[in-house]
């Protein structure tokens, strides 16, 4: 087949597959997981009626949202009011394009767009998400959504700084922005925060894991703030702002905001996994006579059915890691109370910003002293 | 005079918040674990499991007209309950007992007795005000319906819910 045609065809297949078969069901089931886990944490049971163990609850929810009356309040700015929910959902889904979610399957790399500005693209698109919220708050023509929008914009600006600064140590180390290269590096040298693979007895690797772990913590917290998750859910603080930026929304438009938040969580977790937790890579401890103890790399490079299984295994590992992070997100949400607004700002500007900055120097010094 | 409340001094580990956060997460995880292991007693699964057997006698469920041991509906259509009912849920049409019956010219009887269960707030005022001990709040609480009309309990329904009440004051019956 013509290589261009082949590329277009496989890309379309990957887009449809990843968005409709993996991400969207994952979004609806993370809502379900949120409800079940929060219930269990609070000694309740959660939705357990629709289907076995309530597993069809997301379908029922979706039906309800679709069948509800699509009401547009009279005094809103119609164009922006309609635009905002799309802006909340679309950027969250677009970021996944550059994330390698598997090795190869039938020789096709499992990443939709392997572009060399990788992470910059992620930051550029992810920060578009704030426009959805700001526009929603502004166009609703109502004071609570407006306050939510204002809070959201200032929060995003404050935390995007630490988000950007936290990943710089990785680029210092890897020298590439392309996410597949970062994963490749982690396969050869071990995960950023737990470099077991490769020459894991090397002291400098573990020394490097210190700034990487700091980066990991700062980045994860900044992702919490970016996705408006508790303890950073000031834009929609129910107790203060009714519903925050989506107070005036109902039916499917509200659902888009709601699902957009979860989609952002999933892409955020995917980025964290790719940058710090080895992406789709899961080293398997192995022992044979020729090599002794070593880590086995499973990927799709083998021929025949073993390659296919390896490729599928990698995809499975990637989304498994993402799911674990999602559960962590949920767990944190049902543990921590919301920050006060000034605390949030101080934390962002005085604490995380400084930590990320110092961390860059720390990483740079360690890398400069590395034995080549 | 204003009282100054001194804030506790936090040491550095408390100011870092991380130990507190981890402690909180350990607590929530403990609850999650106990739930998953089935160690926590959870909410009743309502439609399947009910609490009815343990319901106390003073439970205030749906108001209903009761019969005495003699099988007579005791309401005399005095309409006191209709007047006292705070949300005006009760509608009574009083009627004359036909001549020739034992209680003719002695009391009235309710021709119609409707309680709109959408309006009723289960306050028990009707029970309290009734001079004849004719209306009681029974233990029915799952009052549902698809239409507003279904939610209005008429006399037959009220008598059906009410059933027979034992131990009522019967001193008037001999005098009538
Ligand atoms: S319980 Fe209260 S509200 Fe209900 S019918 Fe009796 S007086 Fe009216
Ligand atoms: S139920 Fe009692 S208060 Fe109400 S009309 Fe009958 S006798 Fe009077």
Structure write-up:
The complex is a heterodimer of chains A (372) and B (176). Chain A has 12 helices and 4 strands; from the N terminus they run αααββαααααααββαα. With 372 residues, chain A is mostly helical. Chain A has one domain (3-369). In chain A, the strands form 2 sheets. Chain A has a two-stranded antiparallel sheet. In chain A, α2 (57-67) crosses α10 (251-276) and α6 (143-174) runs antiparallel to α8. The model of chain A has no long low-confidence stretch (mean pLDDT 81). Chain B has 6 helices and 5 strands, in the order ααβαββαββαα. With 176 residues, chain B is an alpha+beta fold. The mean pLDDT of chain B is 85. The N and C termini of chain B lie far apart (71 Å). In chain B, the strands form 2 sheets. Chain B has a 3-stranded antiparallel sheet. Chain B has 2 domains: 14-43; 55-173, 2-Layer Sandwich (Alpha-Beta Plaits). At the A-B interface, α1 of A face α2 of B. The complex binds iron/sulfur cluster (2 copies).
In short:
Chain A has helices at residues 3-41, 57-67, 78-94, 118-126, 129-139, 143-174, 179-189, 203-226, 238-241, 251-276, 304-333, 341-368; strands at 104-105, 108-109, 284-288, 292-296.
